[in-house]
Every structure is written in C-alpha cells, then in structure tokens.
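ERR on first pass: missing label on line 2. Operator R.T. fixed the label and resubmitted. Corrected input:
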Amino acid sequence: MSPSPTPTTPRPPLRVALAGIGVVGGGVVRLLEANRELIARRAGRPIEIVALSARDRHKDRGVDLSAYRWEDDMGALVAADDIDVVVEMVGGADGPALTLARQALGAGKALVTANKAMIAHHGIDLARLAEEKDTPLKYEAAVAGGIPVIKAIREGASANEIARVYGILNGTCNYILTLMEREGASFADALAAAQAEGYAEADPTFDVDGVDAAHKLSILAALCFGTRLDIGAVAATGIRDLIAADIREAEALGHRVRLIGMAERDPAKGGALYQHVQPCLVPADHPLAYVPGALNAVVAEGNFVGRLFFEGAGAGAGPTASAIVADIIDIARDEYGPAFAMPVSALDEAPVADPGARVGKHYVRLIVEDRIGVLAEIATAMRDAGVSIESFIQRGDEAGGGVLIALVTHEGPARAIHAALAALAASDHVVGEPMHMPILAL
Amino acid sequence: MSPSPTPTTPRPPLRVALAGIGVVGGGVVRLLEANRELIARRAGRPIEIVALSARDRHKDRGVDLSAYRWEDDMGALVAADDIDVVVEMVGGADGPALTLARQALGAGKALVTANKAMIAHHGIDLARLAEEKDTPLKYEAAVAGGIPVIKAIREGASANEIARVYGILNGTCNYILTLMEREGASFADALAAAQAEGYAEADPTFDVDGVDAAHKLSILAALCFGTRLDIGAVAATGIRDLIAADIREAEALGHRVRLIGMAERDPAKGGALYQHVQPCLVPADHPLAYVPGALNAVVAEGNFVGRLFFEGAGAGAGPTASAIVADIIDIARDEYGPAFAMPVSALDEAPVADPGARVGKHYVRLIVEDRIGVLAEIATAMRDAGVSIESFIQRGDEAGGGVLIALVTHEGPARAIHAALAALAASDHVVGEPMHMPILAL
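pass 2 clean. output:
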C-alpha cells in the first residue's frame, strides 16, 4: 500500500545530475557531501551525484568537483541512462534552462529546479509534460529560498480554501528597506550599501522593480488558488520611488514599509484573481513588520487554519541548496505528486481582477511648494475623486525645500486614489511624483 | 514511476471514519463538508466520511451528523472493510485511544491522530506497527495545531542536520504570559481570565505545568534528530512561579518571557539530547518575542537552511481539523512514508544530556527582606557557586513588603545557578522561592 521503502527492502541509490554550477550548485554539492549519511537515513536510500555540467569547467567554485563526472554538454545529462534526477540551476526563463527542462522531463527524468523565472513563464507547460511522462517536477527553491513554503501550501495547508497569500518575497528589497528604516538612508544610499554587501546585484532591476517577487507570487497564487499560472497578470511596482521620509512617516503612523507580493481571489467576482507586488504599509502588530534584513516571509490565510506565517532565508547557497535537496529527498522517498497540487487539467483559468476596484486604506505622500492655497488644492482633488482623509501630516523644510504632506485615507477603491493623484501630479505646485501605498489590511 | 494519479485514471474515494467527536471532530466534519470539492481536486479523489463513533451519540455538537453511519463501538470502525482511514480524536495517552490506534494499524488501516500524549508515550511502538503493516501513521495535528510543522521538519528541512528545535508549543501559557505582559496581571488573575475566555481548562495542570508542551517537544526532537522518542527524558518547568515583576524586569532588560520547549543535540557529547520545557527570556530581536496570545510558533535551525520560523494557531477546532485533513489528503495522494521520517530501526537511542552542564546566561529573581547584609549574602552565594553577574537591579517596596532583586548572569553552567539558589533558598532573609530562567541564546 505505501509507496515508501519498508526496512527490509534496501533501495538503490537515487542518481542525480547537476546542471549549472554557480554559488547554488556549489552549495548543493557541499550539502550532499556534508549530510550524506543523514540524508540516506531520511530518504531511505543514498543520494549520489553522478554528473555535473556547466559552461566553464575550470572556474574556481570553492568546492572540489574533481571526483564527479563532467559533461560539457548539458544534453548529455538527459541522454545518460544512469541519471534519475536532473537539477536545473542554469537560470533564465528561456534558453538553455528551458531546453534542458523540457528534454529532461521528455526523457522521463525527474526535474528539480530553483528557476522562478522559468516556472513563472513555463510552469504549466512543464507540469503538463511531467504528467504526460509520469515523472516529478519540483521547484521548492524557486519561492522564498530555504523556506519550505511550496510544501507548506501544497500539502500543509491543502485542506483549506486560501483567502489570500502574501509576503516578503525579495530579500534584496527587504534589506534595502530595513536599512532605510534603521539609518534613515535614502534609497540610493541603501542600494549602494546592499550592493557593497553582496545583497544586491550590479544591475538591481529584477529585484528593486519587483520582477523577481512577481515571479514568485505568480507561483504561490497558482498553488493556493488552483489557477493556471499567469505571470502576465501580475502587476509590479518596485521600491525606487520611496524616500526616507516615507519610511519615517509610516513609522509615525505605526507602520513599516515592506515590498509585499499579494494574491487574492474574489469569490464575489467570479473568482477574479488580484496579483500585485508593491510597497505597502504593514501595521506594527503584523508579523511581517518584524521581518528584518534579507529574510523572506510568507503568509497564507486559510478558511479553517487561519493565518499561517513562515519566515527564513530567501536566498543564498545554503538555504537554496536546502530546498533543492528537500525536493530530491521527496523524489527518493517517492513522496510527490502533481507540480501544482492538482493535474493541469483541474486548474482554473482565473479572470484578472480590476486593481482599481480594490478597496482599502492608502498612504499618500506629496512634496509641494510652500505657498498659500496648496493645501486647499490637495483637499479639493481628494474630495473630487471621492477620497476621504483619515489623518494628515504636514512638515515643512524637507530636503529640496518643499513641504511634505503625508496622509492616510479612509477605506476606498484604489482608482479614487489614482484619480486624485493624477489630478495633483498635473499641478504646478506639486514637486515630483506623488507616492502612494496601500495599507495592509489585517 | 509516480505513485500519484495521472489525470486519465480516476481513483476511488478515500473512506474515512472519525472516532471521538468533540470540538475537533466537529471541525473535521465541517471542513470536509465545506471544502469538499476543492479537497477532491487537490487529493486527486473524493474524501468521504463513512462512519462516526463517540461515547454519546446524542450530544449537541453544533453540526448535523445524522447523514453519517454511527457506531457506538469504536471497534466496529476497525472491523469494517469499507473504511480506509481511522481518525483518532479520543484523547489520552492510553486507554481507548491507544487500543483503537493499535487495532486500526494492526488491521492495516491508515491512522491519523491529533493525540500528542499518545504519540509521545507510544509513538515508536505505533510507528513500528505501521511499518509492519505497511500503512500510514500520521500526526500533524499533535504538534502546534494548524501549523504544518511536522511536515516542514520531516520533509521541508529534510536535507539539514538540525542543531536545535524550539518554540512556543502551548497556546494557553502564551495567552497567560501575553496577558501578564500587557496588563501587569498576576499569574492567578491571568489564568482566571484565560479560563473565562476558554483558553484554559478548569484544571489547567497539563498546560501551565508544561506537560502538554513536553509531549510536543519530544515528538519534534525525535523527528529533528532521528532519535527514539523519549518523553521520560523531557524536563518540564511550568509558569506558575512567575510573578508580574518577572515580566516587567525581563522587559526592562530587553526581553520577553515565553514558555519555550527546546531540544538540542550535542555532537561533542556523543549526541546527548537535551529536552526542556521552561519559561525563558527571549531577546526582543527574536521572532518568538512577538508571538502573541494563544498562537504557537516553532523554530528549527538547520546547518544549511539557517533559522526557519513557523507561526500559527496552535489549537482550536478549525486549525486542528486543517492539520488532520492535510494528513488525510497526503494519504489520499499516496504521499507519505515512515512516521518519524525514517524507519524505526534507523532511529538512534540518544543519551540524555546533563541539564546542569548546559551553558548560558540566566535571569535570577529573589524577594528578600529589606535589611543590612542581604546584598552581601546574595553576592557571596553567587561568587561561591562560580556565578558571575552581568547586571543587577534592586527595587524596594514590592508587594508583600520585600525588596526585589533581579539579575542577569554572564554565561555559565546551569548547575552553578542551581547551587547558588539552593544556598540562598536556605537563607532566613530570602522570602519564598527564588526564580531563575535561562536567556534564549540567538
């Protein structure tokens, strides 16, 4: 009855090939070597690396790879009949990573990947291929690094209808925001510090513009809601437009600023799916407000379990390797099933929710010229758009000489805020772009 | 290759019987009814309740059970050949619950249980029986209620050697401690409030003396360390001896008081296993310090993943039902394996660590008479026992008329603290029992 080994029937080793040996690949090798015996006990069989492949064999990876077979051509991993599992760590949504993934699954091999971009763009196609070939496709490392959140949602929360899923899905942004919070730093200075510390890349676009978090959010949404992955439907707003004063005013209002990816399905609107990555004000009594530095955290709210909160390292060689090897152990144990918790044929096509219709409180910040009538202009624009103001702060002498206005609205649709700010952005007295952020509802 | 259903082969329903229909049992019925279709999509087959059994058929459980077959005798569930899974919610370490569990597994049925006492006392025997019969034994609901922490550790963190596992495992105690913290209440008043709110039982012994948390800790330890469950080796100190001043002084020292169950294995001492439930001072920058009310939270520290933190509802009908049904879905999917992550034969017998040898900082609080020489007596007792003091607070005019002394030690073995306090407890000038708590090391 059980697909797992009984103690009396020793099972052959699971034979693994690693493709793309960078920081993460080196971590996987180190992990499988360091925890070798423990993993064999837990998996019910040894897990053996039988081959490696990457572009440059001679690059120094800080780990001795000379004991392993090397293939210059990744295709050789797919062709070899002594390989059960291909671990794809090449990266990129398309190109060699996707070719390898398709070939490996097509050949009936198990595929483990850390590639969030590839899963976000091609996850459904790959899952269908895995089903056709009756072979596992696993991607725990693609979302929130070392936190086993794919498993926690796919299996741990499987009894629940999930109302919404959200979290801090990008450690680089959280590191930058934490630095702005602690040191009153500007975005530019905090980014530079994050780059110097190795937490941000030289080209930080993918992280700070929310693209990376959008990939992860789309995967979580598909799993939570049983919907087809739709990366094109995820709106992403990054953190570049935040100024130090936003962090400060948020704190004065009892909140912290975090880049939040959130997905929510609205049963009242035909199951329309809202997916947005954007900076938000998180109330100080919500656990996301305390997630520091480069950590990640995910919240899932189920109709029976209530709020589940998971926190841990979202990136780095060790945590990512931990997630990859957990997937390999599941395969070794024969404990796996459809990639998105149900067969692709059972997934819904969710209509895209109208983000303008989303109701909530908002934080708005403007820098205005210090002259008579500006306040009236703001109040009028808000009133005309139907925005009701709950609290209002005005501070003179901001850097740049303007006056800072920070306000919190009552609950209302996002489109009213957009309309008010569009009107104000056209005003001669408003300096630069107004900033607005939703306040996370508890 | 995959044990899971392919979309082309519909599978028969999984047939479930529920034994012991109280608050949790009612929750399981409601959940399986409310989320019926979603669960069938996720599980790859319908999950059907085919029979119920409890002592009193006519008790009002707030849910209509008339549609289900009723068995007055739980043994009938085991005998019936139209039942695949028995869910044990009878409670109690021994007696009818254990009889049912043994009979169900013995008959080759799958067993799902929420019974932490039974697993803590008989988990190894039951796991062995499940292996012999090649049938699943699952107990997600036994630890930390709705948080899928058994799964997160058994599978999510499976690639890691776990250095230590610890957390807030009893919601009643955390509710009481949170109340003492927020309102400056005494233990007795906070307990009475918890009882009035339904968070504590009329006889609160199991909760406030740490017995319930000890059961859960022993289960986590076995899973994390691959050791045989040994409930007899778990030391438990409850929260009855805490006074409002302890919470206040802890806060003044930058800490919060939480009842922490911690297990740690010391590779330097033959893998000796330390398992202790006790109130601890948690630093304000540790996520456990922010776990409010009746929530539970668990931390696992792995050698590659680093610190994982899981928080959620630790009790209640909905969260417990969520965990029970997640186990049932795993069984429906054929995604399960050995109960303690590896066969019983692969589990170690861990030697019991000497708790006195455990090194750390400690908080000590004494109430003393307000007279000359008392301070010298304390300082001398500490010095003689080899305890070095890091900080010291003396406050006059405590309730009861004594003087309160609160101090934090430098790092040292617990046995030195015990020796110093034993000497001081014998003093005529010390009023009542001295209190000491370890400070959680980050």
